[in-house]
Design brief:
330 residues, alpha/beta, TIM Barrel, ten-stranded mixed beta sheet, 11 helices, globular, binds ligand PBG
């Protein structure tokens, strides 16, 4: 065999890296604003725009501020939002969560009026609404499963009734997708898709979100319902169950520390849309390091988002949605 055809110097991978246009031509993963879902935190009041201390650039907004946001997202080409609500009052079961005039329900209507085409997704959980801060109802210090999924069904119907396009259960209660599917179908919302937070880990990276959504658990932690970060096979089982229960989109969360899970979900369930949540801590780490001058925010944020897409997620929930759309247009 001719030795010159064996690798170097015949083969030189650097040939294709010589110019920006050549590199662009052979690039395997291209980010687009169309990949992004923008998470938003909505609260009561008027003209409120509170920056979240641990998440610079992320704001808690009142409903009257949303029309402008919808317009901005449209201009940037970001197609979807994920809504989280901060209620006026918290109680043991979180009543405002399924109230017609609840904060998320108001936000859905305002966004819908501002842009009929925006894909409005709502987070269906209980922790922002309950006085104990857990994602289910409590009895004797235990987080109960079956009564919780009944409430989650009511919440999903209430969001759909307000006009939500997609509901996204994140409580990690067993059977939550089935309960929500049944509740939606029973209420005439058979066409409302469910995006399951299927493989959601009990993660330290949610820290800053709990400031933004005012949702830290008042006792204990979420390890009796969210997944153990050490488990990979169990994630596949959780996703499979969500799909059996009727989930239309699967999600892995957080994203960057779990790229192996994203890749495996993509390979194992090739025909199902896969979302990944680039969570608050992933955002705040880079923001903090950039503030200290230790990292370049634009470069590391786009690198993170590219890595998540390369791993196999084509829907990415990210607090950088607007900034990244601007960077990509430069
Ligand atoms: C609600 C919920 C959480 C996140 C999304 N939905 C917090 C939690 O489970 O404690 C985290 C999102 C983020 O950190 O950006 N259950």
């Amino acid at each position: 065999m001719n030795h010159t055809s064996q690798g170097f110097p015949t083969i030189r991978p650097r040939r294709l890296r010589q110019t920006p246009t050549l590199r662009r031509l052979v690039r395997e993963t291209n980010l687009s604003p169309a990949d992004f879902i923008y998470p938003m935190f909505i609260l009561h009041g008027r003209q409120v725009q509170n920056e979240v201390t641990s998440m610079p650039g992320v704001y808690q907004l009142s409903v009257d501020m949303l029309a402008r946001e919808a317009e901005e997202l449209r201009e940037l080409g970001v197609p979807a939002v994920m809504l989280f609500g901060l209620p006026a009052e918290k109680d043991p079961i979180g009543k405002e969560n399924f109230a017609d005039d609840g904060i998320v329900q108001q936000a859905v209507r305002a966004l819908r009026a501002a842009d009929p085409e925006l894909v409005i997704m709502t987070d269906v959980c209980m922790c922002e609404y309950t006085d104990h801060g857990h994602c289910g109802v409590i009895e004797n210090g235990q987080i109960l499963n079956d009564p919780s999924i009944e409430i989650l069904g009511k919440v999903a119907v209430s969001h759909a009734r307000a006009g939500a396009d997609v509901v996204a259960p994140s409580a990690m209660m067993d059977g939550q997708v089935a309960a929500i599917r049944q509740a939606l179908d029973g209420a005439g919302f058979g066409n409302t898709p469910i995006m399951g937070y299927s493989a959601k880990y009990a993660s330290g990276f949610y820290g800053p979100f709990r400031d933004a959504a005012d949702s830290p658990p008042q006792f204990g932690d979420r390890s009796s319902y969210q997944m153990d970060p050490a488990n990979r096979r169990e994630a596949m089982r959780e996703i499979e169950l969500d799909l059996q229960e009727g989930a239309d989109i699967m999600m892995v969360k957080p994203a960057l520390p779990y790229l192996d899970i994203i890749r495996e979900a993509r390979d194992r369930f090739p025909d199902v849309p896969l979302a990944a949540y680039n969570v608050s801590g992933e955002y705040s780490m880079i923001k903090a390091a950039a503030k200290l001058g230790w990292l370049d925010e634009k470069r590391t944020a786009l690198e993170s988002l590219t890595a998540i897409k390369r791993a196999g997620a084509h829907l990415i929930l990210t607090y950088w949605a607007k900034a990244a759309a601007r960077w990509l247009a430069e």
